[in-house]
Amino acid sequence: MKPLLLLDVDGVLNPTGRPTPDFRRYQCTVGSTVYTVHLNYRHGARLLELAVETGAELVWATTWEQHANEWIAPRLGLPPLPVIGMRPDDEGASRHGEMFKTRRVAEYVGGRRFVWFDDQVYQEDDDYLRARQGTGDFLLIHVPPEHGLTSRHLAAAREWLTLTGFSQGR
Fold first, then answer.
1. What distance separates the 2 farthest-apart alpha carbons in the chain?
2. DSSP string for 89-131
3. Distance from chain centroid for Cα 162
4. Which of 154, 91, 83, 147 is nearest to 117 (CA)?
5. How far apart are CA 92 and CA 80, in angstroms?
6. Contact between residue 143 and residue 12 where contact means Cβ atoms under 8 Å apart
7. pLDDT value, residue 151
8. Measuring CA to CA, which residue among 77, 35, 36, 85 is closest to residue 59?
9. Other CB atoms within 10 Å distance of the CB of residue 91
10. Which residues on neighbouring strands pair with residue 24, listed in sequence order?
């Protein structure tokens, strides 16, 4: 099975700090709420390249859920991607200090290898996933939200997927 590249939006593709000139500002309306996002079109090409090079599948792991396909993907040049559902009633339901999205990610990935780019993954999330029976190998990449996704994060994912792919007979 293909490994997965899990993508968060806010803090990863939409940094919280002052965006550099290669980011463009967009207004996105979801329901009755208007969001301002700053996106870098090059992220789309770089993520697609990473997926092709490593044989991985891109998947949204964001509270934007399907709205990421409507508002974010087209602005990055990405096709519609599978979405991990993030039920709002889970937000406060941490069991061991893990982020609420971590349980949904664990359910979705099953035994597949995955890399998860998120600004809110920490040791508690790693511990939760390692203790869960049936979760495959993974790499959590904490992305500092003020800067967002960088070449360094993509290189770490590429290296890890390449090494684990060869060791498991990809």
1. 48
2. GGTT--SSS--HHHHHHHHHHTT--EEEEESS--HHHHHHHHH
3. 18
4. 154
5. 29
6. yes
7. 97
8. 85
9. 12
10. 39
For the entire predicted model, the pTM comes to 0.92
| Token code pair at residue 160 | 């890890």
Residues of the chain with pLDDT under 50: 167, 169-170
Tens of pLDDT along 13-36?
999 999 899 999 999 998 899 999
Hey, what amino acid is at 148? G
Place of tokens 């899990």: 6
Give residue 113's pLDDT.
96
Give the tokens for residue 161: 């997927």
Which DSSP letter does residue 49 get? H
CA distance 154 to 141: 9
Specify the residue for token string 């999330």: 125
Rounded CA separation 52/44 (Å): 12
